[in-house]
Amino acid sequence: MTIERASAKIIEKSLLQDKKIVILFGARQTGKTTLSHNLLDQIDGRILRINADELKYIDVLSSRDFSKMQLLVGGYDVLFIDEAQRIPDLGINLKIIYDNMPDLKILVTGSSSFDLANIVNEPLTGRTATFKLYPISLQELKATTNVFEIQNRLEEYLVYGLYPELMQYGNAADKERYLLELSNSYLYKDVLELSNIRNSSQISKLLKLLAFQIGSMVSVNELAQNLGMSQETVSSYIDLLEKSFIVFRLSGFSKNLRKEISKRDKIFFWDLGVRNCLINNFAPLNLRNDVGAMWENFIIAERLKYLSNNNQFVTPHFWRTYTGAEVDYVEEKNGELTAYEIKFKKARNKAPQTWIDNYGSNFHCITRENFWEYVM
User: Residue 49's domain spans which residues?
Assistant: First the structure.
């Protein structure tokens, strides 16, 4: 099944009409290369497709010598560089090409290290259009099916996630095998390359602890004690995992009311299949005790994908007081707040009174019966 990515048209516009260097970030295996080739196949003109794993290209594209780079890219209409984080000083070299060959269209993909190494941000200020590609979203699935079918397959998506390659597997064993291979071979690769960790065991242990705590506030101090690491090291690893598009965090919302909890984050996974693989639990929902937390993770991740795909920008939070009042998810935009309760089975009709008294009554309940209104 071919699924058109929601960002494809705006990426194409940025590349062809806006004359920007298009940079496509995303975790490994989310389909960056496939999306790029699909876009390029629809473009007229000569296209130079470069895999940055090949040394012959790295030497030229890191040379800062326009005469050398012109020999490589001259005569082409489009330059595509895949996994461009392999190329040292790429940002300044792309700037040289862009400034000297303004008609050349440039598309670049990179995983987390591309962003972490800050290769392109400074040299290319004002010259780029940046996009992030996540696992398949429900909004993208809806383009090839309908809400009824998605609702019927909800358990599958909660248990196995939405990585693109999973769409071709028809049975549980193949899905589990793929997720195990993904976790063992790809998941930690960028983090390991960008840190001093010699093996993935520390990262794996940290991720497993985080996987058991989705929906709960995370104590970095407790994680550090459990792992025998310093708090600074644990914080740096979480930062790397977030920039590798494996996890994301929500901060506690607060206007400095003394009773509000604001110093701890919640940490969620961009894909529940990866999360369930880490804890080795692909059991059906009726045999699990973590369905509520999974549903909260699923809806928040899908909501954030939806907002990103549609160029809507909000600041996401959760909200909780020391007395136990809480809101699962809060969006802050242009000074306005919207509160969301996320419950798999049933939800209350209004926000906690403390929230209403301080922040208003703009409140929604998201359940299995209406989730598509918020994520599609």
Answer: 8-133
